[in-house]
Amino acid sequence: MITCPNCAHANPDGAVNCEACFTPLPIVKNIQCPNCHATVLSDAKFCGHCGFNLSGSTAVNSLSNTGANTGANTNSENEIELSIDPSTEIFPVQPIPIAMSNILPDEPTEGDSAENLAANPFAEVTTPKFTDIENLLAAEANNPPVTESVEPSVQEPIKTPVPMSIKTQLQQFAASLLHVQTNLNIEIPAHLPVVHIGKPNTVIPPDIDVSGFPDSDIVSRIHADIRAEGGSFYFEDTGSSNGTYVNNLPLPAGNRHKLRAGDRISLGKGDKVSFVFQLSS
Amino acid sequence: MSVNLTCKLSDRSLDRNQSSSQRQLAIAISANAAFDGNNAPLNLCLVLDHSGSMGGQPLDTVKRAARDLVDCMYPQDRISVVGFDHKAHVVVENQPVDRIESIKAKIQSLKASGGTCIDDGIKLGLQETSKGKDGTVSQIFVLTDGENEHGDNERCFQFSRLATEYNMTLHSLGFGDSWNQDVLERIADAGGGAMAYIASPEAAGEEFQKLLKRVQAIGLTNAHLILQLAPHVRLAELKPIAQVAPDTIELAYQTEGDAIIVRLGDLMTDVERVVLFNLYISPASYIAEYPTSSEIPILTVQVRYDIPSLAQINSLSSPAPVTAELVQDFVPQVNPQVQNHLLALAKYRQTQLAEQKLQQGDRAGAATMLQSAAKTALQMGDEKASTILQNNATRLQTGTTLSEADRKKTRIASKTVLQPPTNPSTDPSTNL
């Protein structure tokens, strides 16, 4: 029974025009939602029962899946997941869908079809991202800097081929921390209101994980954080054991320091793990 | 004289794997004047309302239009005039058009007074017309300006249907704004004729001439379409048959054995009648029997008709088969001419639905339906109709009621094509 959208007359199956008012009838069939197997109409965008996005896979869905099912993902994701903690993985990757949602559909994971889809329209854009990540992973065993440096390298290749996505980004103050001892630049995730610095833990997982750097054992798991407010960045010690220093002056816990370009941040005594705050515009 | 018959399916390709496919079949019929160009003489009867409301200019213009009509007729034609108010009387007896001045004088003698009883007028008109119906094309023009106050509408429809059984066609002309468009449309539909709207007295002459031209082009009468459907084909349940050109008329059908018979009435030599059939085809049983066949028969169609000029009745055209093509990978390929016919029917049906909703009090629903009708008209290229329908829709939405004149204009806009599309469908037709 096909109901006419114009006059509500019940037409037999196979009807192309309504018997009563002759308006063209939409050709919809009943299909199954791939997620929950409920019957949905073929022209629906979302499943009415489980909310699954029927118009192909999307970043959001797959990302939540990647977070949940670490096992069921494509190769590149697996590599990342094995080498980096899932918790750290999620955060750096998430900004991408939000900022450039065009790109992400390929990242998903649900199977080869998604990857193949990804390969075609977004071939130029996405593969650099993954190859970069893989290269960096191979090159350095340092996970956090990899994930962070993925961001700038991701953004660069993406910026050139797809300038459109730049327009949709919110205006960012691109701030980064230059790790003095290894000369690695870590981008501060721009969209996060608070960026936690520390080592992996279950209470407040860090956005910038310094556990890969040399002498990182003097850094606490919940060490410090940087807040972005109104275009300025504020640095604060969140209860570290060995203390925090700004420009070699101790920063008591709870005191927020407004960061200026060139400020030197040291985690723990003796300037063993230090960063230089940099602003790039 | 013979019949031109053209059959077109809305989409000639049929999906092998689909259990039931809906298709529309457009059959275009006209009279072919190639062999014997002369039409039979006309037997015209004018049934004129001269009730009190017609007093003054209205009746004067009608009388003048009638007199002009007589001038355009040929000596071998026959004419009769019946006048009615609450009773009917013969003004001009059925006679050949030779004593023109005396005929005109009698027409001029009509005076306006009295009530309105349309059915009495039609009954007397039928009686007068039947006196000259042998070997002629019998046509009756019924003109009225008001409601059937002293009469019975049901009797009107009965007389109209009776006329067709005697092979006489009834056309209705509504004068002014006070007539009932539903009643007059039903009279015309039952009588196999057209409906005309004379909005103002000045238009009377023009409308009379248009209708005269239509009836003077009639070559064949009492035409019936006889269809034999294949066993895997069935007609749609709801209103499967309708004429879509030149006017839209819902058609009733009869079944005799396994044949479907539809009465068309008169066939003109210059204008085609196009009838649309709504069908459902289930190819599964045919494919099971002939798995290698790539063509599937749908139906055969014949026309039964009378040739008044030769006093011949019940001539049959040779059966014309209609087939479709079975395809594995179905891609819709709609025939644009059939699509246009579909749109004409859609426009009419949608406007009718709007009228129904209006009568039920659902103004919002009626306005929506009128808007879809306006859109359909636009798709057809009938911009004038689209404007009328859209105006009505807007008026309903803003809360104003439609005037009587509006409703009549709407009815005419839905039934006929006010502005024909730029590419009229001209197809080489097959002589039968």
**What is the name of the CATH architecture of the largest domain in chain B?**
3-Layer(aba) Sandwich
User: What global shape of chain B is seen?
Assistant: globular
Helix content of chain B: 25-40%
Strand proportion of chain A, as a percent range, falls in 15-25%
Rounded to the nearest angstrom, the radius of gyration of chain B is 23 Å
Number of strands of chain B: 20
Top CATH class of the largest domain in chain B = Alpha Beta
Q: Any idea of the CATH topology of the largest domain in chain B?
A: Rossmann fold
Oligomer: heterodimer
Low-confidence spans of chain A: pLDDT under 50, at least 5 residues?
Answer: 57-130, 142-165
Instruction: Look at the structure and give the mean pLDDT of chain B.
Output: 88
End-to-end distance of chain B, in Å? 10 Å
The best one-word shape of chain A is: rod-shaped
Q: Helical segment tally of chain B?
A: 11
Largest interface: A-B, 15 and 26 residues
Quick one: biggest sheet of chain A?
6 strands, antiparallel
How much helix, percentage-wise, in residues of chain A? 25-40%
Determine the strand fraction of chain B and express it as a percent band: 25-35%
Number of separate helices of chain A? 8
Query: SS-based structural class of chain A?
Result: alpha+beta
Q: How would you sum up this structure, described in words?
A:
The complex is a heterodimer of chains A (281) and B (432). Chain A is α+β, with helices and mostly antiparallel strands and 281 residues long. Helices cover 28% and strands 21% of the residues of chain A. In chain A, α2 runs parallel beside α6. Chain A is rod-shaped and about 85 Å long. Chain B has 432 residues and is of the alpha+beta class. Chain B folds into three domains: 152 residues, Immunoglobulin-like (Sandwich), CATH 2.60.40; 175 residues, Rossmann fold (3-Layer(aba) Sandwich); 78 residues. Helices cover 35% and strands 33% of the residues of chain B. Chain B is built from eleven helices and 20 strands. In chain B, α1 packs antiparallel against α2. The C terminus of chain B is likely disordered.
